[in-house]
Structure prediction request, 150 residues.
Amino acid sequence: MGYLVVRGAPGARQGSRGSTPRGSERPINHHRIGPEADAARALHLIKVAHTLAWVLFAGAIVALPFCALYRRYDIALLLAALVSGEVLVLAINRWHCPLTAVAARYTPDRRANFDIYLPEWLARHNKGIFGTLYFAGLVFAWARWRGWLG
Prediction:
């Protein structure tokens, strides 16, 4: 809980670092109340869920070629199927994550990262970056499995 410090209160002492005076600390209520607070909480939960999903799929895309490199084609196939399922969901939703539409209900913000905890540049270029990595990983896994790359 945070504290509101009232300077010059009776019995106030300054510590060596200019800390809070003793005897003059009052708790601040940091909990917002009302529809704005509910929207902020809902948006936060959506952003956390969206970020966790992104970490899962980005991790699967990055791990795919490494699984092929170490000849773990069973895991590579599982990762490829997982990401293909997400690609199907995106395709059905006109290349937008369904969580984006849900998050849009709670904020007028429409920056590239309004619905996820990612830097704006990464959120803006996410599909291009990870789509390319995914395709390259699939090609690498296929070529390795076929024996074309040793």
Summary: Residues 1-21 have pLDDT under 50 and may be disordered. DSSP finds four helices and two strands in the chain. Residues 35-69 form the longest helix (35 residues).
